[in-house]
Amino acid sequence: MSSKNQTLLIVAALFCTYFIWGSTYLAIRFGIESFPPFLMGGIRFTLAGIIMYIVMRCLGSPNPTRQEWLGATIVGILLPALGNGTVCYVQQTVSSSVAALAIATAPIWMAIFSSFWGHKITGREWLGIAIGVLGIVLLNIGGSLHGDITSALLLIFAAATWSFGSVWGKHLAMPKGLMGAGCQMLAGGVALMLASTYTGETWPQTISVKSWGAILFLIVLGSLVAYSAYQYLLKTVRPLVASSNTFVNPVVAFALGIWLADEQVTHNEYVALAVILVGVFLVLTTENKEV
What we know:
By secondary structure, the chain is mainly α. The protein has one domain (about 5-285). Helix content is about 75%, strand content about 0%. The chain has helices spanning about 5-30, 35-60, 65-90, 95-105, 105-115, 125-140, 150-170, 180-200, 210-235, 240, 245-260, 265-285. It is globular and about 50 Å long. The two termini are about 25 Å apart.
């Protein structure tokens, strides 16, 4: 592939993770109006994974080896299941805007976890990490998470597991191309279906058109398109650059939440957004190329 074509693909992939993923937080909120959270996530990723697997096999991709299935399963559990599944669960009690804002700390976690594989955290990154933590503290002091320590910890857990899986995945055996994304989504979807069964979730008696639309959006655009784009970025650019969508996702989530769901954003949450994005900016603009 020529350098120009690869650059265009990277730009297109970044666009998908910036704007499509920014809107998935509101889609999740609409989805869980009818579906229980783990069941919704399980349906989303299982169907997307099956579709991607079948398409890639029809296009000639080889069946993954046992080692590649293991790598894909690990990442699938960390990203779609623990990362996204936890966000779905927490969005039962917090707005899509706040969920996106808390997940914006992902690059900060990536900088920390990358040190496990030899990356030396620079002074600039430490400053960004400290500022990002300050933003989370502000969100808990006067924002929607005030007094809700469980939701706050779960959102931090979601950002951390997603980041750890993103960094670790670069060092694991993985199916080539989009087959890797398909296997990850399939494994994560199955894990979420098991979690749904274990927690006693049941199929909803009535399902709104809005929830069906949200599920379709999450399967096609949120998973088949945006998740695959993210996996392409992880293979092509540094994990911290791949996660630069966290700059834009909260802004998109804030705008759509206010516009389409009448979500209320407090002054303190706007301040927390600004502080967290400053921290993320410092981490992402480090000149260290090892991450």
